[in-house]
Amino acid sequence: MKYRIAEFIYHIIRNSIFAGLLLSGLSCSIKIPETEQTTDEPVLYPDYRDVTIPVNIAPLNFKLVNPAPAILQLQSKNNTWQLENKKGRFLFPEKKWKSILLSSAGDTLKATIYSKQPDGWKSYPTFNIYVSTDPVDETLVYRRLAPGYRMWNEMGIYQRSLTGFKEQILLENRQTNNNCMNCHCFNRQQPDDMVFHQRSMHGGTYRLKNGKIEQLPVNENSLQVTSLVYPAWHPDGKWMAFSTNDTKQDFHHADPNRIEVFDHSSSIVLYDMDNGTITSSAILNDSSRLNTYPAFSPDGKSLYFCSAETKPLPDQYRDIKYHLLRLDFDPESGTFASFTDTIYQASESGGSAKFPRISPDGRFLMYTLSEYGNFSIWHRDADLCLYDLEKQNLLPLDQVNSPDTESYHTWSSNNRWFVFSSRRDDGLYTRPYLCYLDENGRTGKPFLLPQEDPDYYTFSLFSFNIPELVKHEIVADNYELIQFTRNK
User: Fold this and answer.
1) How far out from the chain centre does Cα 346 lie?
2) 353 vs 340: CA distance, rounded Å
3) Domains with residue ranges and CATH for the chain
4) Which of 22, 164, 342, 446 is 20 to 30 A from residue 58's alpha carbon, by CA?
5) What are the Cα distances from residue 207, in Å, to 107, 210, 430, 484?
6) Is the CB of residue 43 less than 8 Å from the CB of residue 62?
């Protein structure tokens, strides 16, 4: 309830602020005052200086951290626009913003801020905004939840337009007896075919296909699998790989990571979407190993996964380090090879890999790396790694990683963008960052998901995780989803 009250207060404050702003809109005729130049960099939130953005992204609304009356000037090769407001807040009219991006596609916007200080107007050093001609997928789907360790007080799965600010509820757990819901996963970024899990009450794995909801059956099988965890679609839609994890959670008395989550046992199974049967292989269902986080290659001929040797837990939790492996797969027969290739050797490199995701063109493999374990969202040292599958080498991500946690990540359908969850802002809440990647694996500077109100993240008490890019908006009847899942 306290999170609902906080959210209500946030909206009151937000609306009051918006009503009080003097915003004249983008113009070509605002007079730039005489200014004294300063070498101080402008402090913006969110920090959109020198970022590469897609041509269809929502307005990059931001504020000056030290509020003051200010003017923003944007210059492209052929046009100049000014935006004037008070208290340092810059809110772009959506239609005008879209026209600016379209006219600046493939070009650089030069941004200069003029700020009125007690001793007169100051002009800050100009920074750039690079407008890529590569669009990003139109919709981002994520789980948003209040922070907690033992209870799922409030969470939901939401979809958000990336070309604007519209957010829609797919399912909230206050509608389903406050159970846990997680691990939404899409078939090749298609919004009309997804799966997700519910835990506790109404537990099970659900499929939303073409707007219709069904629960995936777990038919009798020799593996005695009763629940499915981390999912991965095969590109032909007939198969899915799932891990089966016996997960435990514990707390540190004194450690920067605070919480430890580990598997007592885990394996990977193959699910036949046509008849609900479950199979596996000797490699994927080996009781001497912990196998988790499956991911099929875009051509459907390989399964990537993480694997570690079992150790006595919790005593040796720091010794659990996951290799990143590849296993050949025959989609015609639904069978796996009898040997693996090693992509990342934990015993030699010293870290622990998790959450592999392959770009849709099959060129790049992104995964998360931390000192040990496989639940990176609680590990402050967790970073993203990028492996070039064609050249078989690691590529630098210095501009992407931060001193705090980088975790869940996914690709856009055109391979040029990825989104990931990061705690770089305050070390407490995970928030979604978007980043450009060119065909050679060079990245731009990540930028925080734009919000209509620059103070959105300041007042929000929710974390974002499992951000998934999908091509279009999901069409679903929220009432039908609630009724179906509540009756299971």
Assistant:
1) 25
2) 16
3) 22-132 (2.60.40.10), 139-486 (2.120.10.30)
4) 22
5) 42, 10, 26, 11
6) no
